[in-house]
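Question thread 4412

I'm putting together a teaching handout and wanted feedback from people who do this every day. The idea is simple: show students a protein as raw sequence, then show them the structure tokens that encode its fold, then repeat with a second protein so they can compare. Below is the first pair exactly as I plan to print it.
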Amino acid sequence: MTEAFFHDALERLDAVETLIGAEDRELRADVLGWRSRACWLSGRWDEALASADAAVAALSGLPESPQLARALARRSQIAMLQQRPEASRYAREAIEVARRVGDSFAEVNARINLLTQLATSGVAPDPDETAQIVDEAATAGEYEEAYRALTNFTWSASGFLPLDRIEDVYAAGRRRLADVPPPKSIGPYIDVSFAFRVLLPGARWEEADAVLAEVARSGMAATARLAFLTVSGALALRRGQAESTRQLVEELQPLALASGEQQRIIPMACVALPWFVISGDRERLRSLTENLLASADRRWPAVLEAVPIVRALATAGEMELLERTAESLRTTPDVAASAQTALIAAEGLLALGRADAAQAVERLETASERERELGGRYTLACLELDLARALEAAGETGRAQEVRRRAASVLEPLGCVNPY
């Protein structure tokens, strides 16, 4: 599994299960825990959750043990990935058991899960805590977990911390782990995640291209493939490469929906919805938006950017869908970070649609300022295009021209054709 030979890993786990006696419940839990991880990495998401639950159930009634701590940690990991409401509770339970039985793997695994789940719920991750987890995992020889802590921080800090601060934490962690390369099971995912969460919003597209080229040469698991398709699709869309975008969206959309994970579905929609606007496919735009709203269910993760979604709906003139999306964001408990920026932008676009220029300017200026503080140069430029329209509607032509020139100074050197 560490070498990313997931089919072989699952075959061996199958063989082990045939040899386990009814009394070997701890060994069965170990096998099921590893199966949940291998299934998730290889794109067998439903089986990953079932195996994680079964690992915990296998130990029911037995005394606390390292096997129980690990089973609880794996369950919390899958629950976190699927944004299940019980994920934080599962992680805390796993941490407590891991500390009582002295299992370092289960403790660092569950701490990463808890940090990640709290961030999606609006609690900013602590860079110092992340550095501590990386160090403790490396000291215990749990290098996959150390690298996972870095990757999850890169995702979890988005919308909370400036991009340069996220990069500093990431770079320091990579230096700490420099003696041991990332395992092939997650190495490509680590690199693509950094490109997605730091390089794209930071308008560093040539660096993102280099990451994609390197990852494409090395091969990748299903989870990394989803992130790879998202980054590739975003770049192709923005550069006006219609056929490439179409092909990437056709592969990306069903995979993301099959995962059942918000962290796959929302980024996919940030590529697919603008593409449906550009290609004139209103039926698919509406269908995917309905699917997205049902999936989000008024629980938008704080750390996932959704500005391209609301901008696509506004561009398409789908104001009823935009209003419903704004309401879904607005009623998300403790809406924060990237989700809050998307809500503010949606409110500004709705105001622009109903000719309330003053409200549109106020909301879009607020959304733009939030991105400016975070260093999201590309996202800021996109928002400023909308702000310029609002300023023009408010009769502030001079300011509108200044804002539009500022946006163009970012977008034109990138070769951006479709600013979403």
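The second pair follows. I'd like the answer to focus on this one:
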Amino acid sequence: MAVTSLVAVIVNYNSESDSIRCIDSMLAQKICPPKNIVLVDNNSPDGSGLRLRAHFPQISTLLSERNDGYGAGVNLGVAHARADFYLILNPDTYFQHNRMDEALALFKTHHDLGILGMNLLNPDGTQQYSARTFYSAWSIVLRRSQLGKLGPFQGGKQRHLMEKAWGNGPFSADWVMGTGFIVRQQAFDQLQGMDETFFLYMEDVDLCARMWAHGWQVWADPRLTLIHDHQRDSDQKMFSWSAKMHLKSLARFRYKFGLPWFVTPSRDWMRDRFLRNVQS
């Protein structure tokens, strides 16, 4: 059997220290060979791309001439280094363990598995619940407001976050967070990569929805832990740039797939809406 190749793609934008920590952890844990690590710099105005290239001469660093968004950066990295599987990472993540062999074993035994999401943890070890059901308008309200913390509504929020699914090994999820996931090259190519009309946010939900529409499976694996030391700017500041981008991406997603008010849309809903838009 041929050796399965894994290439890691990290998109940097003014995140020099985070990218260094992420790559250092990958090298220390031997996640993949240095030649299989691709860092894409999305034209960072702070010049971090050039410094990272000098800091890590053993990896591939691509300096994009413009910032076309996160999805475009991922697509650029994937196109640069062909592989059977791609590990897509935000720079504000880092590894403490290497469980890649177990992840790739799942892909080898489940040939329709397109994406495998990772178990994202805060630095203090608490869980971020990185696998979700598809959004309804109501689930967004519960997730983004204080209502979700009230007793009568906690169940709805917990179901959206799939909180009870994390204790029994790999499981099927509607979508997984793009902060850290593994994707099969065949599936990614069939979908023509990430939709670059999403500049930031919702591109992961869109990718998973299109996976289901094309007959691929989306799973999450609690064993694959990844520390995510993130800044929740879009949650903390109602009128921040990040919050505005989140709303813009949500509107784009709603245009492509629709957004029921109260009922969680099924995978068949997503497939039908997607195929209808493709044919129209």
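Top answer:
Good format. For the second protein you could add a caption like this: The chain has eleven helices and eleven strands. Residues 241-257 form the longest helix (17 residues).
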